[in-house]
Structures are given as structure tokens and as C-alpha cells.
Request: fold
Amino acid sequence: MSLGRGPKSHTRTTLRPQEQDNLPIRLTRHSQQADDRRVAKVAVPHRGLTAVLEALGGCLDDVPVAVLALDESGAPVLWSRDAEDLLGPDVARLNLHALQGRVAQEPWRLTLRTAPGTGPDGASVTWVVVTEAGGDRNLLEVLSHQALHDHLTGLPNRALLEDRISQALARAARSGSCVAIAFLDLDHFKLINDTQGHAEGDALLRSVSERLSSAVRSGDTVARFGGDEFVVVCEEVANADEATQVADRLRKVIELPISLGGEDVYVSASLGVAVGSPTSTPEELLRDADAAMYHAKVEGRARTELFDQEMRTRAEARRHTEKALRRALENDEFFVVYQPIVSLEAGWVEGVEALVRWDDPERGVILPHDFVAVAEETGLVVPLGVRVLDEACRQLSAWRSEVPHVPLSMSVNVSVRQLRSRFTESVAAVLARHSVEPHSVVLEITEGVLMTDPFRCLLALEELKELGVRIAIDDFGVGCSSLDHLKRFPIDIIKIDRAFIGGLGTDPHDSAIVSAILGIARALKVSVVAEGVETSQQLYALRHLTCQHAQGYHFARPMPADELAQLVKGGARW
Reply:
């Protein structure tokens, strides 16, 4: 789930030359910060010109008149594109006196209006609006519309959406009816942007907005919440069942083919529904509908979920975990343990897998399955992943000196969020910092990650292969397109999921599946590691099937670095 993503479009930034190094104000046309400023500043749109300009903040490129903000010294700190067109390229050097002089030279053509206010960074500014003759007749109306509507689709933005929800709740309280919020997120929208380009992605968003607008009643509101997220406000809804039915109809409307670039494109959406009570606030309804939408994503996408108390509990737990994770990163509460990977031919340790643990001061040691999903959703997995990789490579370098006779390899898990970041640069920096040979590092990616964003993953993995690290598919066999992944992606190692190891020696189906995977791996010249080996019977079966490597509790549980070094020094064999 993501909140408030802006459309992927060119960002135009205008700065005074002397401020480019300092970057005191970031002017982004479509950014989360800009959206947040709109919400914060448009609480009372009828305050006049000052309120509207403050609402627009750094989004001035869309303003159809010349607007400037002057600091206390009278120098421009930001301005609209039309200011450059009307006043010339030297707009950065114009102060209020110069602007007034420019207008005085052409009073029949230009008019100037000023208003005190606050800039995007909270500092006091003087807003200046310069218009051509007659151009300011409906200025406030034009700017108000800009401040309250999405530039791409023309739909209400978040600021106007919250106002519409407030009004709907007030009417519902008087009439005794319900207000339903449908929070809609397009499934795999990034794939459209990545494969067909941002222009086609924008066209898709416009088509979706038109379909939603035509599918609702005249009194309902369709708003663009940000990025590929839309919100529909439905009034006079009888109950939760009717709200869910309305959301299902909206979802089915979106699933009809959309023509992009002369081709039919099929998209789906995940919808979350929340029904308001007389005491509900817009913030609570949006939060609940968003939580239900996220649950729809988790349950497989292309579906509708109704918010309930259980979701509220999970959402609160998730928020608590996110807050604690941020604190944990600041306080360095994470540590790494290592599980041996054993050569079944030689019988000794040839590699290790680095596994992160969280030492929470209140709850003790927490395993990854209790926090990695939240870290992934919030993006915290990116800095956390770099820390784990850095510590693992530091430890690998230390082992090179401590046990030089054993050429250990180091396996580290990687998430899809990391692959979407500048991950190759981070890996290269870590390898150089600790003088680690790239070939000794194995990056493990689950099949689920590959299926989430195959195009981006392929590009990232090809870059990593050029760097020299090895790539492993983790949990192999549980995905629905494993063989396709082996063909398309630059894979060096297959890690057979523990689900197929448990029945070795007793279940002929598991033995047949493992045997087939090993045959494919040999044909493709990739190595195999069997995960989750817990019994001598499973070990015997794997050796009989000529599997190359294995790991699991039969050999050792994950352990601190010093214990693993002692295990290797002691010449442990199985």
C-alpha cells in the first residue's frame, strides 16, 4: 500500500542561482510534499487570494498567471512558469520595486496585486500576482480551482475531498443515512509506466477517472487521492452491504478494456470500503478505507474488502510496528545471525545465510516474519537491507582472516523495494568498503518478488550480475511461474522451498518434485540448495538425489558470528 503517490511526470524546479546549493525550497509540481501542503493550507478556501496562493505552494507551474513569492529582502524565492513568460528570463533578479516599475511602464497592459502570506517552507513572503489587462477578472476563481483540483484528471484533490466528506457526513447525520468511502488503487500500475511510458500511464489515469465519474450518481464525488489511487464518496447508502455492491460495480467498470496507443489494455483494482457513523471524521473514514484496500491487496488484488474491527486492530498494530521500526533504525536495534549452508558432497560448511533479528527493548528478539512486511510497505526495508548487507560483508571479510582455509560465501535476502532503489550502487559501495570479492556474495530474491515487478527486477538483476555477485531464487517451487523465471532471469542458484523437503523419504510426491528440480538445475547449469533440512532421513534422500547443498536445523540453527567461526574452525562435518 502506498499513500499519496504523485503521477510520474517531469518535475520542473526553479531556483535562484545563489540558492541552488542550499536548496531552501523545493518546487515540485507533483510531489507528496506539494499534496500535503494543499491539504494543510486549503482548510478555508474562501479566505481569498492569500489562502489560495498558500494552498498552491510549490505547485506554481500549473498556475495560468504570473505568480512570485518574495522573501523579506524582496527577492523572489519561487515563481510560476507564466512569470518567466510574462516578465522575461531575468525574473530571478526582480524585486518588488523592479516589478512595480515594470508594471508602471505598461499600465494599460499590466496590473500588479500583492498579498502577505506564508511560503511552502513556512517563512513569511509577499505574494505578487502580475496579470495582463483583463486577466485578473476571474483570477481568484481560476486559482481556487487550481488549488482544489487535480491537474491531470480535473477531479477534486485531497483538500476538496476532505471538505466533500465533511459535508456528506453532516447531511447524513441529519437524514439518518450512511456515507460510504471507496478507496481504490490500480493493481500493477507501475508496470504500465515501466513498459509503455508515463504518457500512456497518464492517459490510463484519465480514462479511469472518466469511467468512475460516469459510473456514480450526480451527488457522489470522485477524487484523485494521488498517483494511481482514487476515492469515491457515496451518499445516502442504506448499509454496508449496499456500499460493497457499489464498490464492486466500480471495480468491474475499471476492468473493461481501455485503449492505449491503439491497443486494448486490461487493468484491475483493489478496493477498500468504509461506512461512516455520525461521529466519523474524514480522516478516520479515509484511513479505514485505505486499510481495507490494503487488505484487498494482501488477499490477492482485484477484489473489494469492507473495513471491520479486525482490520482496525491490524492497522493499529501495523502503525505501532512502523513507529517502532523507525525508532529501531535510529537506535541500531537490529543484529545479524548466520545459518550454515553445507556441501552435501564434502560434508562441511561452504557458505552462510545472513538473517536479520530485531532486539526490541520491550518485546525482546523479534523474527523477520513479524516486521519485514511492514518494513517493505513503508520503504524502511531499503535502509535496513543496506545495513544487513554491510554487516554481512564486514563479517565475511573478518572470517577471511580468521578462517582463511574455508572460502565461505555469504547469502543475503533482498526485497523488491531494494531492487527499485539504486541498489547496485549500494552493493558496489559495500563490496568496496570491505574488500569483498563480488562472487562470494549471493543475493537471494524470492519468487514472489520476481512476480511483483518482473520488468524492474530483470533490469536490476542484470546490473547486479554485471557487478559480479551471484543471484539465487529463494523458496523455489511455490511460485506459479518458476520455470519461466529460470529462463528469463540471470539465476545462479535455486533454493528449493522447505515445503518439498519435509516429505523426503516418506512422500513419493516430494521426492519426485525435488528430483525434477535437480534435473532442471543440472540442465541449466545452476546450483541447488535444499532449505529446511531437519532430519537425517531428509539428508540421506538429498544425497541420494545428488543435491549439492543444504541448510536447516539438522545442521545448525542461526547463530552469532563467533559461534559460526568456532563451528568452521572445529571442522564440523555431516
The first strand starts at residue 66 and ends at 70. The radius of gyration is 29 Å.
